[in-house]
Each structure stands twice: as structure tokens, then as C-alpha cells.
Amino acid sequence: MKKIVLAALALYGFHAGAQVKMGDNLGTANPNAVLEMEATNKGFLQARVALTSTSSAAPLASHVAGMTVYNTATANDVKPGLFVNDGTKWAPVSAAAAGASVTAVCNGFIGTYYPGTATRSYTATVTNNTFAAVTVTPVAGDLVLSPASGLSVNGVSGGGSIASGASSVLTYTLGGNLTATGGTVITGTFTKLGLNCSRTVIVQDIPVAIVDGHNGTKLTFMAHNLGSDYSADPLIPSQAINGSYYKWGEATAVATAYTAAGNISGWTTTYAPNGSWNAGTEMAPVKTANDPCPPGFRVPTKNEWAIFDYGNAPNGTTGSMIGTRSNSATNFSHGMVISNFGEAKLLLPAAGERWDDSGSGNLGALFHRGWIGMYWSSTELTNDSTNSYWLRVDQSYPQSSTFSRASALTVRCIKH
Questions:
Q1: Residue partners of 192: CB distance under 8 A and separation at least 6
Q2: Distance (Å, rounded) from C-alpha 118 to C-alpha 122?
Q3: Which of 54, 114, 266, 372 minimizes the number of CB atoms within 10 Å of its CB?
Q4: CA-CA distance, 191 to 45, in Å (whole number)?
Q5: Which domain holds residue 131?
Q6: 356 and 261 within one domain
Q7: Are residues 3 and 142 both part of a single domain?
């Protein structure tokens, strides 16, 4: 029976000049149509398939330009509705069929970027232009940094179900250790659901402070403690300039100014070996790979810190304590201001230490914030593999002292 019908249609199509008409009024066909269907109480039922995404041909074997189907699935960026294939992808015939007909604007990098900084972010705003809610599921791989320069995309928030006409801000959290130098241009390119936009940021030079040394020499220090927010005023005491805490000889901070004051889980009591921060000599120091300071800077030696020692400071260099001295985890007001001939140059916050004392059960607990400043040098004690020198910023004057390498102190880097 099927063969008879097909044969009849073929004969009719040949008689009509390679035209085929189905349904009502078979005798009259539109001369411009290869195939015409006419009916007053019936419709044309399109092939129904379950698409997986606009970019995949499945369940077809390949993309075919002009292919039209009715999609029955809700998946990725497709919803039920008519789709036409353009040879490389599926396109919805109606806006309601588009699972993610959205636009995006790159807001770009948040914060100021300096060598050595880590936690920053990059945001993009996605707007739903369809007539129904769409779901956007961001992943870290949506954002590509070029050059990466030590930065990494650690995570992302935002997205989810976005109502018709609504927007969502996707926030990509950046981590790592920015190694680019000042003037480097970093580009962040956001790609999602076929959208693409990019923004750039210029790496800023790290703020510095120049102080007088002996015999007319000048020493250039970072204006902030290592791990601070370098955009904060370095001469106004605050949590933002307290900085991070480093064990001697190690490259990575074990705590920040925002870490809780109690013990730190997983604290280790190992001692870094001699030479961990200085591969040269006291008078000719050489930065090592373990040195935590950003490019162009290193941890000062005991000799370099000695210019602030009581009775050893150059003419015109003075130190004075500011703020209220009290031993409190929340006291960020106390510290010493180093001045040259009355001009404030450096503020050394009394940030305290993260103590290593297994005997008393204190493993990484915070002590002496707001009471004393403790700044590592790269200099170890002779014939002592467990202690190293540091600059003690007390209520009266700085002086050199020694402390266990397994404890964590603040670091103020010097230019080399």
C-alpha cells in the first residue's frame, strides 16, 4: 500500500512540474513551492528530537545547514521549541526556545594590582534577554588570564537561575602570587555560552619608602608590610597594613592580619635550614627562591635593620611610638614611625607574632599584637639552626633580637 501511495505521489509530482501538494485542494499548487501542504483542520508535525546543546549536532550525526527540528529537551542552552541548523550549530526559531540567549559585560578586575599580591577578583555581568528563566553555571575556566603572571582563578560565585530580563554578577576570585612587574598589562577574557568579552589591568609599582643610611647611603624599603593591602595609606595604622606572618626561611605566609587569633590547624614545627633566605653573605646578600618578597625586593639582613638600632641610627633618623600600646588581637593602632629629619618615612606596626610553643600547646596562636613589632631578617645565628635575628619594635626603640624559626613574624622587604 505504501508503495502505491508513493508511486501516486511521484506521478502527480511529475505531472505538476516536480511539485508536490498534500492535503486539501490537490489540484492547485503554488507555482513557487516544491512542496505545499493545505489544510483547515490539521497541522504539520515536525520531526521531534532531543537536542543536547546548540553546539552539538546530536542526536543527528552531523550539522546540516537548513535542517529543522522540534527540540523536546531542556538541556544546557536549549529549551523545547523549533531549531534551525546553520551548518555549524542550532539556532532557536523563537526566543522562548533559547535556553541561554544572554548578553555579558566584563566589569573587569577589582582592586589595585601590585607584584606579590594575591587575592583579587574579576567580575562579569550576565543579562537574560529571553522570555523565560535561564540557568547559567559558571566555572573557573570561563576566565582566562594573559599573561597569567602567577595569578590563578581559584573560584567563582553568582549565576544560577536568572529570571527573564534580570542580571547576575559572576565574581571570579583570583589567587596565587602576582609576579609581574609594574607596567605589565594583564588581560582577563571571559567566555561563556558563546559570549566573549575582555578587560585589562595594569600592574602598579609597589609603594616604597626611602630612608637615610650611614655615610650618605639610602635604603629603599617597601612602604607596607609584606601581605598588606598596598593601596592603603602606609603611615596610618590599620588592619589593612598589618601584613601577613611568615616562618623564617619559608616562602608562603602561614597567616594574615585577618586570621583568627587561636591555634592554627596543621601547624608544623620544622626549622628552615641556614641560607634559606640568603645565599650570599651578610654584606653581599643574595635572594633565594624561598624569599617571600616580590620581584626586586628581598628580606633585609640584620646589618640593614641595624640602622634603626638604638644609638646606631644615622644623624636625623628617629623613631617614635604612636597609638595605644595594649596586647589585644584587635589592636591595630600601635607601632613605630621612622622619620628622617622630622619627615615620617616608615610605619612599623606592632603586629606581634604567631607563636610556636608545643610545650604550652600554642601552635600558631597570635601573641602581642598591639604590644610589640617583630620583623624577620635573613640572618641566622652562627652555629644555631633553630633561631634567627629579627628587629624588635618595642615601646622605646628598635633593637636586634633572636627568635625561633618555627614561629611566624611579619616581614618588611628591602629593595635590592
A1: 104, 124, 126, 136, 138, 142, 170
A2: 13
A3: 266
A4: 37
A5: 102-202
A6: yes
A7: no
The more confident residue out of 101 and 161 is: 161
Residues 191 and 290 both lie in one domain: no
Backbone angles phi, psi at 376, to 5 degrees: -65, 150
CA–CA dist 416, 407 (Å, integer): 26
Return the higher-pLDDT residue of 144 and 33.
144
**Cα of 392 vs its chain's centroid, Å:** 34
Last residue of a domain, one of 59, 74, 99: 99
The region, left, alpha or beta by phi > 0 then psi within -120 to 50, assigned to residue 180 is beta
Count: domains in the chain: 4
Give the pLDDT confidence of 204-254 residue by residue, as tens digits: 999 999 999 888 889 999 999 999 999 899 999 999 999 999 999 999 999
Q: 320 has which bridge partners?
A: 337
Residues 355 and 284 in one domain: yes
Give the three cell numbers for residue 407.
Answer: 614561629
Question: Are 263 and 223 part of one and the same domain?
Answer: yes
Q: What is the CATH number of the domain that holds 198?
A: 2.60.40
Residues 235 and 127 in one domain: no
Same domain, 224 and 364: yes
Whole-angstrom distance, CA of residue 22 vs CA of residue 371: 94
Q: Nearest CA to 117 among 40, 39, 176, 33?
A: 176
Arithmetic mean of pLDDT over the chain: 89
What's the Rg (C-alpha) of the chain? 34
Tens digits of per-residue pLDDT, 383-410?
899 999 999 998 767 888 999 999 999 9
- The C-alpha cell that represents 86 in the structure block: 546553520
Residues 271 and 377 in one domain: yes
